[in-house]
Write a structure and sequence with these properties.
Mean pLDDT: 88
Shape: globular
Order of helices and strands: EEEEEEEEEEE
Number of strands: 11
Distance between the termini: 39 Å
Strand content: over 45%
Number of domains: 2
Strand order of the largest sheet: 7-6-5-4-11-10-9-8
Largest sheet: 8 strands, antiparallel
Structural class: mainly beta
Number of helices: 0
Radius of gyration: 16 Å
Helix content: under 10%
Oligomer: single chain
């Protein structure tokens, strides 16, 4: 699989000159084999400041907006929307909102309780790796994969 330069790859295993991993770019996402020589490590901070999580992260059509929590603690407020498009124009939606406190570059978000939407986020520089418990909305509407920081709006 060819991957666009600058696209992230989550490495599963390396066998000789080949690396098996998961990647995402504007053409889609999934596991594939890559030439190891084409991959470069991503530099990231294990203990980023809260501001590094802010503001908007996009994975395909899905997005999560992260702001400082209004409760006066070191928590972050997440507001997210996910969409899945099926056959014949079927769409399923998911959304979530609430506060969570990061531990280093990791954030474990639980919307309301153990049987509610749960999302794990790992901040990796200009990317977030997201994974949910499949309880954040309609069928296949997921908060998962690599997310990129949204560019700031253009000034006119």
């Amino acid at each position: 699989m060819r991957v666009e330069p600058g696209s992230p790859v989550l490495v599963y295993t390396v066998e000789g000159p080949w690396t098996c991993g998961y990647s995402a770019d504007r053409h889609g996402a999934g596991p594939a084999w890559f030439r190891s020589a084409d991959l470069r490590p991503i530099a990231y901070d294990l203990h980023p400041p809260l501001a590094a999580w802010i503001p908007t992260w996009i994975g395909g059509e899905d997005r999560v907006v992260i702001t400082l929590s209004s409760n006066g603690t070191a928590a972050l407020h997440l507001r997210g929307n996910a969409t899945w498009h099926g056959n014949a124009g079927v769409e399923h939606f998911g959304d979530t909102q609430g506060d969570a406190t990061p531990s280093g570059n990791y954030l474990h978000f639980v919307e309301e309780g153990p049987n509610s939407c749960t999302i794990d986020l790992t901040l990796l520089g200009s990317f977030i790796l997201a994974s949910d418990n499949q309880m954040c909305g309609g069928m296949n509407a997921r908060f998962q994969g690599f997310w990129r920081r949204s560019p700031p709006p253009r000034r006119r």
